[in-house]
Specification:
By secondary structure, the chain is of the alpha/beta class. Helix content is 47%, strand content 11%. It is built from 10 helices and 7 strands. Residues 10-27 have low confidence and may be disordered. The chain binds zinc ion. Residues 60, 115-116, 173, 175, 194-196 line the site of zinc ion.
Length: 271
């Protein structure tokens, strides 16, 4: 009596499993535009996909080649950041049917994630949910939420001890906006703006002033960094901490966010 329903439910489970596997393998030609989006799609699919652009290339300076265009046309689903954040894809994506593309959106509310929204855990989670919904799969966010809460607690403690000393951090390139908005952090000043324009004299003078006042605990430097410019403005006592905004050194989405957090935690005066 007991075994029959169990056997039936086992068969159902097996069928569901087979079906799910079939759906997933049908979706293997998901094409994420960036490496961070590749980590995001890997969370949902359980397998990694080769992104359109290499991990170490900034979306600010990417040029499409014919081979990229072929890949975009042959993918079953292109996952990208949308025409504003990836203008080099805007024109070609107009030719690709809506059902073959997924824009990880900012929620349309200008949530303050800035030009690098993928550095925000909330944005990434939203992207995971969007993709799961599109593929008809389910993703359990419990662990993700637990982890980000942990990171938040450590960051607020660190931020408190920095501000008690009247200190903060600089960024070379204003590319951590999403992460900062999510965790309630803000940098003192940046050398270049979000789109990497060269700093003006006024901005450099303000950085010099901050350093002279002993307010600069460190500078976070990413792929855009020009060390000679920093050397001209800041002394060696200001620690330079590498920060991997493009996730070039991460193979996992949660590790990526943790690495960003670790960089901020590493920011304190050595003196
Ligand atoms: Zn930027």
């Amino acid at each position: 009596m007991f075994f029959r329903p169990r056997a039936v439910s086992l068969v159902v489970t097996l069928l569901v499993f087979l079906f799910a596997t079939a759906t997933t393998s049908a979706a293997t030609s998901v094409l994420p535009s960036t490496h961070v989006l590749a980590l995001l799609t890997a969370q949902v699919l359980g397998t990694s996909s080769q992104p359109l652009m290499p991990a170490n290339v900034s979306p600010h300076d990417f040029n499409l080649k014919p081979s990229h265009i072929r890949r975009l046309h042959s993918a079953q689903l292109v996952v990208w950041l949308g025409p504003e954040l990836e203008p080099y894809l805007a024109k070609i994506m107009e030719q690709i049917p809506q059902q073959k593309q997924l824009i990880i959106s900012n929620g349309g509310s200008g949530t303050g994630y800035g030009l690098h929204p993928w550095t925000s855990p909330a944005y990434l989670l939203q992207g995971i949910n969007q993709l799961s919904q599109r593929l008809g799969t389910k993703w359990d966010d419990t662990l993700w939420l637990e982890k980000t809460e942990q990171l938040q607690a450590q960051l607020s403690q660190h931020g408190q001890s920095l501000s008690q000393n009247g200190q903060g951090y600089l960024v070379y390139h204003d590319g951590l906006d999403g992460f900062e908005a999510f965790f309630g952090l803000s940098h003192l000043e940046s050398f270049t703006g979000a789109d990497d324009q060269a700093p003006g004299a006024k901005r450099l003078a303000s950085i010099v002033q901050l350093a002279e006042d002993g307010k600069v605990a460190c500078i976070l430097v990413d792929h855009e960094v020009k060390h000679r410019l920093i050397d001209a403005v800041l002394g060696p006592e200001v620690k330079r901490i590498p920060i991997d905004i493009l996730a070039a050194n991460s193979n996992d989405l949660a590790d990526y966010i943790r690495a960003l957090q670790k960089a901020v935690l590493a920011c304190h005066l050595t003196a």
